[in-house]
Design goal:
alpha/beta; six-stranded antiparallel sheet; about 240 residues
């Protein structure tokens, strides 16, 4: 017996070999947008329309819902993007960033990584936490914690923060503030994708050095609704 549910759409990514797509065609784009990967292939990502009016959209990456193949390719590309920084410890932002953080740390040859948490365990400390607001949950601020028992892993180490996406900069700026609070030596921030350039202004307003910490293998602009579909606003493409 089939499941009885309303049609709420679907989420699918697809890797398009370079031999099948030599170059990106002109807009408008309808259901998805191919983003070129460092190896020359393309990741075809579905659009996610944004509130309040849903006239803008991003090419949506959700690493827990992506294929294992795409996650593997992105984490490998992230490692190559930060290898020159010689990070000694990887920190993963909950929840989606931890998927990539574990993979990046393993591929860098590390024995473990440091996961942050949205869940407050009884031995956690308020002094080791910070509120977070993200683009996908703007009305429900969360609090991110670091387990005090893991602080020793960061002492005198070169720290790399790992996220899945940087868009508004809300989660990454909170994470950087928390690292500053505990005195961690952050040498870089690795994300799978840079979504628009809003985050550059947010991070730069807090610390002019912060935008330069961020590295990602792929980047996307904001898309605006028009006749027949979505059109990239190239003025929003991140540096």
């Amino acid at each position: 017996m089939p499941l009885n549910y309303l049609d709420r759409g679907s989420y699918r990514d697809r890797i398009i070999p370079a031999a099948e797509l030599r170059e990106l065609g002109p807009p408008p784009y309808t259901d998805s947008y191919p983003v070129k990967l460092p190896d020359g292939d393309w990741a075809d990502l579905p659009f996610l329309a944004l509130p309040p009016d849903f006239d803008t959209a991003i090419a949506y990456l959700c690493i827990t819902e992506n294929s294992f193949e795409l996650e593997d390719r992105l984490s490998s590309a992230m490692v190559e993007a930060v290898r020159d920084l010689a990070p000694e410890v990887v920190i993963g932002m909950p929840t989606l960033g931890m998927v990539l953080a574990a993979s990046v740390a393993r591929k860098l040859g590390h024995p473990h990584y440091v996961p942050l948490s949205y869940s407050r365990k009884f031995w956690f400390e308020d002094e080791l936490s910070i509120p977070v607001v993200s683009i996908t949950s703007p009305l429900k601020p969360k609090t991110v914690f670091i387990d005090p028992r893991l602080l020793e892993r960061l002492e005198d180490k070169r720290v790399l923060l790992v996220e899945d996406v940087i868009s508004t900069g809300g989660t990454v700026s909170a994470e950087l503030e928390l690292m500053k609070r505990i005195g961690a030596n952050v040498v870089g921030v690795a994300t799978a994708i840079k979504e628009t350039n809003v985050w550059q202004k947010k991070l730069g307003a807090i610390d002019p050095a912060w935008p330069g910490l961020v590295r990602a293998p792929i980047s996307c602009p904001l898309f605006r609704k028009g006749d027949g579909g979505w059109y990239p606003d190239w003025s929003t493409l991140p540096a």
